[in-house]
Amino acid sequence: MADHIDDAASRQRTPSAPEDAFARLNLIGESPAFNAVLRLVRRIASCNATVLIQGETGTGKELVAGALHYLSERRNGPFISINCGAIPDSLFESELFGHARGAFTDAREARAGLIAQARGGTLFLDELEALSPRGQVALLRFLQDHEYRPVGDAQVRSADVRIVGSTNAELAALAARGAYRQDLLFRLSVLPIDLPPLRARGDDAVVLADAFLERLSRQYGRPRKTLTPGAIAFLRAYAWPGNVRELENLMHREFLLTDDPQVNLGHGDPLRQAPAGGGPPPAPPPPRRPGGGGAGGGRARGGARRGAHHRELSRGEGARDRRIRARLRRRGACARQRKREPRRASCRQGTQPARQAHPQVWPVRRRIPRRPLRPRLDLARVSHRGSR
Q: What integer is the mean pLDDT of 302-310?
């Protein structure tokens, strides 16, 4: 009898209760919406059907996927997570299914894909909305019968793996617009899970903040800090657009930068004083240029630009004229031009009618003496003389 009592007490002390199991997996919350999600996770963890987790960014989709794996019979198998948006379109099939040796240029040896690596476990596909049409077709064919063929291989293989996907977009809306395959959405959402945002979870923000402070105190070996009443009021009033991830980062920063034994939020930090639905602050106006604005200032700036343009053109024309005069000077045309031009003194005295100050001068071609032509040889006569 005592042995049975000891066994029952030991079973009660072990963290096999569902709440303790979820706490070990960092799924912490007391709100009714979050508890409903935990009950659904506990119910579907034992089956092998495909699961689609939907929710805003930072709500803990990967933690839920890990709970589905570690609470199932596949807990001893691998749990492989992959971001679909980080794989190039041309390499998606090779990463997912693997490839044989010589399948493409750099395939010097055969390599197993992620499906083969996750055999007996769970493959978590994050950001499914980032899949290209080619990747959607490849995933659709695999979800149909769990059979695949590595790139460049002729053998079809079967996979013993559970697929869990997640997205922070509305795949139904994307499928309605034609941006996502509807048949793939049907195969992914066999068991859908919708995660509520943190603003819809009541006082879970306060519970999570306390849990984060306790974990940080163990991590850094420092005394545990508590929340002030002002901090608790701020946690309840803030909208948390980044959800649990934003709350965790905030508590991490406050734990490291606050010297007091209590953490106070909502004072002195412009990030915390932002409104619930507010966006980034407006950009400052551009600085005013000297000279004033308005139509007058615009005309002045336009005139200055036009004047600078004309000066550049005149500078270029002057350089061109100087090059032409240097070329003519080398050819000796400037000396002839001076002989034809009248003297400026006589023009001033009126003894000689003034001519044009700068007559148009054309370059003078220098005659090259032609070489005398050699007399042509009469080949017939030369051959006749030679015959004589």
A: 55
Q: Which of 171, 163, 172 is CA-nearest to residue 190?
A: 163
Question: Is 60 exceeded by the pLDDT of residue 348?
Answer: no
Backbone dihedral region of 265: left (phi > 0), alpha (psi from -120 to 50 degrees) or beta? beta
Within a 13 Å sphere around the CA of 196, how many CA atoms are in the beta-carbon half? 19
Would you tell me how many other CB atoms lie within 10 Å of the CB of residue 29? 23
The answer to whether the beta carbons of residues 227 and 266 sit under 8 Å apart is no
147: exposed, middle or buried (Cβ count in 10 Å: 0-12, 13-18, 19+): exposed
378: exposed, middle or buried (Cβ count in 10 Å: 0-12, 13-18, 19+): exposed
Highest mean pLDDT of the ranges 13-27, 162-176, 275-289, 354-368: 162-176
- Structure tokens that stand for 246 in this block: 């934003």
Max CA separation in the chain (angstroms)? 151
Eight-class DSSP state of 69:
H
- Mean pLDDT of all residues in 174-181: 93
Backbone angles phi, psi at 112, to 5 degrees: -80, 145
How does strand 162-167 pair with strand 122-126? parallel
* Crossing angle of helices 32-44 and 61-70, rounded to 10°: 40
With a cut of 90, say whether residue 205 has pLDDT above it. Answer: yes
pLDDT at 176 over 50: yes
The CA angle 76-168-253, to the nearest 5 degrees, is 80
Q: What is the β-pairing status of strands 147-148 and 157-158?
A: antiparallel
Amino acid 109: pLDDT: 81
CA distances from 269 to 143, 238, 259 (A): 48, 14, 16
Start-to-end Cα distance in the chain: 151
> Among 85-99, 136-150, 196-210, 327-341, where is mean pLDDT lowest?
327-341
Best CA proximity match to 161, nearest among 113, 112, 123: 123
Note the pLDDT tens digit of each residue in 253-295: 999 998 899 999 876 553 444 444 444 445 555 555 544 444 4
Beta-strand ranges (E) seen in the chain are: 51-54, 79-83, 98-99, 111-112, 122-126, 147-148, 157-158, 162-167, 191-194, 226-227, 262-263
